[in-house]
Amino acid sequence: MKYVDEFRSNDYSKQLVDNLRAISRSYPQKINIMEVCGTHTMAIFRYGIRDVLPANVTLISGPGCPVCVTPQSYIDTALELSNRKDVIMATFGDMMKVPGRRSSLLKKKAEGADIRIVYSPMDCLTLAAENPSKQIIFLAVGFETTAPMTAVTAIEARKKRLGNLFFFTAHKIVPPVMEVLVKDKDLNLDGFLLPGHVSAIIGTEPYEFLSEDFNIPGVVAGFEPVDILQGLNTLVSLISKKDHRIANDYKRIVRTDGNSQAKDYMNKAFNIVDSNWRGIGKVPKSGLEFNRQFEDFDALKHFEICYEEYDGGSGCRCGEILKGKINPTQCPLFKQLCTPENPIGSCMVSSEGTCAAYFRYYKGP
Ligand code: SF4
Fold first, then answer.
1. Cβ(181) to ligand 1 under 6 A?
2. Which domain of life is it from (predicted)?
3. Sheet of strand 115-117, all strands in order from the earlier edge strand to the far edge
4. How close is the Cα of 316 to the center of ligand 1, in Å?
């Protein structure tokens, strides 16, 4: 398949692995790299990239899965809203199995709540128009990749004068949480494999603080094996030369200044606010909420919900996993009580979750 096969080439992948090993031989110090994108985590496992890394290079999975970083209190509040007889709740499929304290959206749906899976928030425009006697609530989670679509949907809903569409927003923005991680001395990070999808929206400029303030390099990479291996080559090479720049190895998608139209939509609808990340806590200026012009779309305000944030218990160690402190095999519940069929925590639910990636691909030791 043109434009895909080249990025899955065995020969070129092998050359990149050999080159990575050669760089590592010339710089044998321990190198800790964090990938902050759940799609990277999955792709790294799927293509066996961890198995071919030089011994001194460690990949640490970070908080790159938007469903995983959403606090349990958000799920519980969504469940509470779904109890209302006048509500149709719309959500991405990944949210359905995430456990709240006592239930999940999947169980609520089985009990009769009107919960619909949508592929885009724009689907909610049709839902709202076709169900004028119902209140439609979209569960708006995700990073800078999905936030522009929430903004566009609210803008369109206003144009169409839809008065029955609301959003329960928990959108998050990625660079501020990276600052928290880079300041964490336990992690001792040497570099970041930067998220391709998020960077397609925000560009590379928002990561420059890593280089300027913390002397940490980063490389934006795509999601095919050649993309990831090329990104690791560039990153390990930068680290070995003590060159702290932010590089872009995904130029076919990512521009330095990102996608200006998507950013305009976000700026039009949202304010940047402090936000709670599961396991990490309150991160300054890392969330988005509707601004004054769009606050009538805010489900919490419309339904007068007093929202208190908290994380889950149940022995789940998602918080430490999202911070890169442990890997899933160090959680006693992994593969025992916690499986994708019966997830105890959000990291086992999402297709981008680290525990789900380990469950599917990790073979040993
Ligand atoms: Fe939580 Fe399950 Fe992951 Fe353990 S294996 S951290 S219980 S999601």
1. no
2. Bacteria
3. 115-117, 87-91, 135-142, 165-171
4. 5
